Structures are given as structure tokens and as C-alpha cells.
Amino acid sequence: MSNQNISKSTLQRLPLYLNYLKSLPDTVINISATAIAEELRLNDVQVRKDLACVSTSGKPKIGYNTEDLIRELVAFLGYDNNNNAVIVGAGKLGRALMGYTGFKEYGLNILLAFDQNPDVVNEQELILPIFRLKEICGRMKIKIGIITVPAASAQEVCDLLVESGVLAIWNFAPVHLKVPDGILVQNENMAASLAVLSNHLSEQIGKNR
Amino acid sequence: MSNQNISKSTLQRLPLYLNYLKSLPDTVINISATAIAEELRLNDVQVRKDLACVSTSGKPKIGYNTEDLIRELVAFLGYDNNNNAVIVGAGKLGRALMGYTGFKEYGLNILLAFDQNPDVVNEQELILPIFRLKEICGRMKIKIGIITVPAASAQEVCDLLVESGVLAIWNFAPVHLKVPDGILVQNENMAASLAVLSNHLSEQIGKNR
DNA sequence: TAGATTGTTAATCGATTAACAATC
DNA sequence: TAGATTGTTAATCGATTAACAATC
């Protein structure tokens, strides 16, 4: 397939384009990369290059057919086919993500959570003991694991997920995970985001002194 | 101050260093950039440059004093002084973030949430109606706003936060927010992360065909 | 002293932006 | 046709990595 060498930065912008396109009224039949770029405050060539990875239906002077482009983005991003996932770590964050229904829209289907602590295990709420992880993930052919355990146990959990056949890991712990080749780790580093926020504030406050 | 031109990429790696340093046993008096780099699978020069933004106490042959470096990182990242914040959007994600106690460690103190929907407003749970946002943020001198509303209303909420004196916005909605100069928007784009995960999976699966 | 390590200057790499030809 | 827009090739920019001198 064509999605061989799409850069991570491109990939991360695609959902923004899609979201913007979806927000447009039905009356917008065609849309140009230039218009998208202006709206999202991006460079127009960048948008054009990004879209070229996803679609070939752009026409000079006209732009893209909005509906077609939406369809192509949805397909490319895999929002139309469900990816099953499990969460490891049923603390506050884990349970929150589990309860969050918004991911379905992105094709992510969180089936189960696992936790080490017997006190939080609760079959009713689909929180199972961690010793059952390997068996269940294997049987259900789970390919995505979400890590929401404390930093100290993240690597251990990661190894377990990899052993269980998971191919992609969404890591919410602020650590670097070591994985074999072919396994992807996507870090959702909230601590990193907070560092950026906090640094901005101290700069702003420093300025006004 | 010295933190004038620290790059965002550097800033985002600092919490990883800090976390690793904290995980070390007390017996590790000194630590080298080389050792940190190896552990985190980064380039050693990169780590050295990053640390140079934060500390000047590195000594050839010895490295950094672990405790000193931890202290310097904590101070630089502002984990030692509390930043008060409010959340707008008390849906599942918003309430989850509110309930998540882990942010305190990073100096982020979420005081209140606001929501448009009278049904979720609940003074007991510190969820207030949105019309009180401006007055309260102004009075409490809130500088950080967290947006967890649906994409369609994110810009509106953003404008309101800016009006209320907020200087930094942590945006969980998958949209580009337009803000005046001097206001920082840090996007926590879960949709973008999912795009990367999903793309990896379809590549892997394509390979095995 | 010798060697590990720091910090700096130069080279490389990848992503973004600019310039431009092709075209509906 | 003229002009807006696409897609491509070249230039720029910033971040990462390599090379190296300084030093405890």
C-alpha cells in the first residue's frame, strides 16, 4: 500500500484536517488546501503535501471534493474499522479513559481493563486481574495496549503486553519504554505538556516584573 | 532570566530525565549525561545540551550530582510552585482530569470545573455554570485553562478563557485554537496519537499479508 | 597521568517553506 | 483566456548528531 513512508508529523495533522472538514456546512462542495491552511494557520504547501499522502483527487482551480476528502481521511486514519484495545492500570486515569466514549469515533474500542490491585478488580466493570492479561489478549487477538500504571511499573506492564501479542502501545506513564523492533510506542506525555505550559507562565510572569 | 529560548522539544524531554533520576536508588550520588542517554535511548549530546539549559553543575569525568540535578529540574519545571487551573467542560474527560490527583506532583492544581449544561453543574463537586467563569477566574487570578469541551465549542470557550485573563491553555479538543499573541495553547491531541497507533497497525498487518 | 566526561563548534538530517511549472 | 489551485523541485530552517578540545 501507499502509506509506507508517511511522517509522524503529517499523520498527526490529518485528524485536524478531518475535524475541520466535518465542521463545514454541506454547502461547501469543494475545498482548497489553501483554505484549510488559512483556517488552521498552517502553511498551504504543507497542507497540500499532507493531503497528497491521502488523496489524489485534488484538482487545480477547484480543490478537493469535501465529501470525498472526508471519506479518504476517515479510511486512511482507520476510523471506519474498529481496533480493540485493553487498558492496564485501572486507577483514576485508566478508569477515566475506559469510561470515555469519545474514542469510538476514532475506531478505538476499549474492551477491558486490567489491574494488579485486587481491590479495584471488578468483573462487572470489566476490570480484571492482571494475571489474566496474557491469556485474554492472546485469545481476543488484542493489538493495542494502553498503559496507565505508575511510572515505576510501566516497563514491566509493557513487557507483558508485548508478550501477549500487542503491536502498538499508548503510553501515559512518563517513562521511556523499551520494546522490540516492530512494536510502536506512542507516548501521551501529559507531564511534558505541563512543562511547556508552566514554562510559558514563568516567562510571562518574568516579563511583567 | 535564563529560560528565554529553550526549545519545546527540550522542554518536553526534561520530565523524562527527572522521572528517571527520581527512580534511581540513593546510592547513585553522581550521574552522567551519557548514562541518562543510554537508559532513555537518546543521543548523549542531546541530553547534555538539554541539561545545560537547566544546570551548570556538570563536571567532567564526574557528571552531575544526582540530588542537585533533581532539584534544578524540579525548580525549572515549576513543580515546586502551584499553578491553579480550571477545567471547562465537565464531561467524562473533564471530570476524569479533575479527579486525577497525579497532576499535583507537577505543580498543577485543578480548582474548579465549569460547564454549560445545568444538569452536570454541581457546586458540591465544584462544577459551576459557565456564566460564572469570567468573574471567578478574574478574582482568583487563574492563569491556566483546560479545555475538554467538544470540538465545536472549543474556540468559544477559548475566547472566554482569554477574556478572563488566562495565559496558558491546555487544549484536549481536536481543533486549532486562535489566540492573541502571548497566550500559549498546548494541544493534547489524543486523536493525533490514535492516528499514529492506527497507522502502525495497518502497516504491520499489511506486511503480514 | 590516562580516561571519562563535559561543553562547544561543525556537519547532517528531516521537516517546513518558497519558487515555479502544469492545468482545470 | 486568466487566474486560482495543484503538485513538484529547490531553498531554508531548526533540531539532532558527529567531531573535538577542555578538564576534573
Characterise the protein shown here.
- 2 copies of one chain form a homodimer.
- In chain A, helix 7 (151-163) links the parallel strand 6 and strand 7.
- The first copy, chain A, has helices at 8-23, 33-40, 44-52, 66-77, 92-99, 133-140, 151-163, 190-207, and strands at residues 30-31, 64-65, 83-88, 108-115, 127-129, 144-147, 168-171, 184-187.
- Chain A contains 8 helices and 8 strands; from the N terminus they run H-E-H-H-E-H-E-H-E-E-H-E-H-E-E-H.
- The first copy, chain A, folds into 2 domains: 3-77, Winged helix-like DNA-binding domain superfamily/Winged helix DNA-binding domain (Arc Repressor Mutant, subunit A, Orthogonal Bundle); 83-192, NAD(P)-binding Rossmann-like Domain (Rossmann fold), CATH 3.40.50.720.
- The relative contact order of chain A is 0.09.
- At the A-B interface, helix 1, helix 5 and helix 8 of A face helix 1, helix 5 and helix 8 of B.
